[in-house]
Amino acid sequence: MDDRGIGDRNIGDRNLDEKDLDDRNNIILIGMPGAGKSTVGAALARKLGYGFIDSDSVIEENCGKPLNVILSESGQDGFLEIENFINATIDVKDYVIATGGSAVYGKEAMEHFARIGDIVYLKLSYKEIALRLGDLEERGIALKGGQTLEDIYAKRVPLYEKYAQITLDCESKSVRKIVNEIIKNI
C-alpha cells in the first residue's frame, strides 16, 4: 500500500500493479448526470492546483457540435463510440476530469482512466438525481428509445461501482464537503 492508502486495486476486469499506480496522478469523477461532477471537479481542481477537464466539453470541441446534436445525428451507439474513443485518448497530468454520465459504458476509456488516475464515484440516490435534472434530451443524455431516467440509473449504478476506486455518498452534502472528502480519500 502506498502513502495515499492505495494498494492493489481491481478496475473492472483488470488488476492494477504498482507500476500502474506510479502513473496515477489525476482524479476522474464518475456518476449520474446531475451528480455534480463538473461543479465538484472545478472546485477540487482549484483547491489542489490541478487543471480541470470536462470530458463532455472535450467531445463537443472535437466534434464541433453540442452533445444533444451529436446524439441526434449519431444515435446512442454512435455517441458512445465517440465518447469512448475521446475519453480513452485524454492524456494529462495533475488534472481533475469530470466525465459524462455514460462514460462507464466505454471499457477502453475506463481502463485508461484507471491507469492515469483515481476514479471517484459521486453517488446520489435516484430521487435526488431526478430532482436535479431537467430535460434529459436537452442535457445530451444518452437514452435509447423508451428508456427512462430510472432505467438508466439502474443500468449505470453497477458500472459506477465496478470502476470506482473511491465511492462518496454525496447525498445532502455541500460541494466544499465533497471536495474535502475526496482529498481525504485519495
Structural class: alpha/beta
Using only C-alpha atoms, the radius of gyration works out to 16 Å
Overall shape: it is globular
Q: Give the neighbour order of strands across the main sheet.
A: 4-5-3-6-7
Structure commentary:
- The chain is α/β, with parallel strands linked by helices.
- It has helices at 18-22, 37-48, 55-63, 67-88, 107-116, 126-132, 149-163, 175-185, and strands at 9-11, 14-16, 26-30, 51-54, 95-98, 117-123, 166-169.
- A hairpin with a 2-residue loop joins strand 1 (9-11) and strand 2 (14-16).
- Helix 3 (55-63) crosses helix 4 (67-88).
- The chain is globular and about 40 Å long.
Give a quick precis of the structure.
The chain has 186 residues and is of the alpha/beta class. The protein contains 8 helices and 7 strands; from the N terminus they run ββαβαβααβαβααβα.
